Amino acid sequence: xxxxxxxxxxxxxxAFGGWTALELQRHGAAVTMIDAWGPGNVRASSGGETRxxxxxxxxxxxxxxxxxxxxxxxxxxxxxxxRGFLRPIGVLWMFxxxxxxxxxxxxxxxxxxxxxxxxxxxxxxAAARRYPQIRFDDVVSVMFERxxxxxxxxxxxxxxxxxxxxxxxxxxxxxxxxxxTMDGSRLRCVVLQDGTRLDADAFVFAAGPWLGAMFxxxxxxxVTATRQEVFYFGPPAGDPRFTDAGLPAWIDYQQTQxxxxxxxxHRGFKVADDAAGPVMDPTLADRxxxxxxxxxxxxxxxxxxxALADAPLVGSxxxxxxxTPDSDFIIDRHPQADNVWIAGGGSGHGFKMGPxxxxxxxxxxxxxxxxxxxxxxxxxxxxxxxxxxxxxV
Length: 393
Hints:
Layout: E1 7-11, H1 15-26, E2 30-35, E3 50-53, H2 61-81, E4 86-87, E5 91-95, H3 99-114, E6 119-122, H4 124-130, E7 141-145, E8 149-152, H5 153-166, E9 170-173, E10 189-191, E11 197-199, E12 202-205, H6 211-214, E13 224-233, E14 249-253, E15 257-261, E16 269-273, H7 291-304, E17 313-323, E18 330-333, E19 340-344, H8 354-365
């Protein structure tokens, strides 16, 4: 299809869908984007105030390469838009004594250096002198990823859609009727729940945790939403030690990974557990924090950031990871429709990659590239369990 004449429908206005729509538009495609609740909404995997951006991936250095490209693009868009969505305050990694942690640190450092991303190694005592707010008693090694930091999530999703519309793109609030029904080897249209037909030459489905309901046979259980509780604790008034002026973002790599962002867009000191929570329905689930997880977060604060041991809980949210079995993304053509592309499975680490994935998907849709086997559906050998039905809508 010609770049100037292609009509593309993008379903989903989060990190994957929004950046893809913007990139397709930049190449001359006529793009229509829809989202059920709006860009960066509270049910979306791209919702919430902030996300860590980092390129540390251990042996999975292909993600280091992708993150390096994404970081480059975030810088370019920040320079162009002047909105400050990228906050390059660095990320401080604190590693425990496990063999796994040591291997992850060593492999990550090698990959970062390979891609020209500076990394600094610190002893726990040196780190404690630099950051006296942190207790390093059970930390064996420390690594500072200097060009990493955090992103303003919800705001950047909204901005991408606004820029897309300002440049002539069509955006509307709407939800696709599921499952998506194929018509031969090409999809002709998507029917929305209000009866509207959305016709296009090509379709990109970037609907996060709802991909299983859209494509039960192809995706189904291969994208699962898990409940992730995030907490914001209030530091003392006027105390800069727990803002992004006094601390970098941080990741505590022990038996499980805790992570956080200081200041966090003035909402408080962000603390979250990276371990996958229980499976949840992204549409209907109640999103109130549980006392058990609040207590767990507070116990961690008492141990690692003792000055915040009695800090009040000033906010919380329940988001979700929409994960694949191997935590790798899905970026592939639908096996029964050559004009349908599926992008999802962010698995808790996809948001920061948005601009780079937008580039990748646009090149796939417009026929200038082929899918990377690491992200294709062919890697999933097993079909869904007998009688499986994804009910989320």
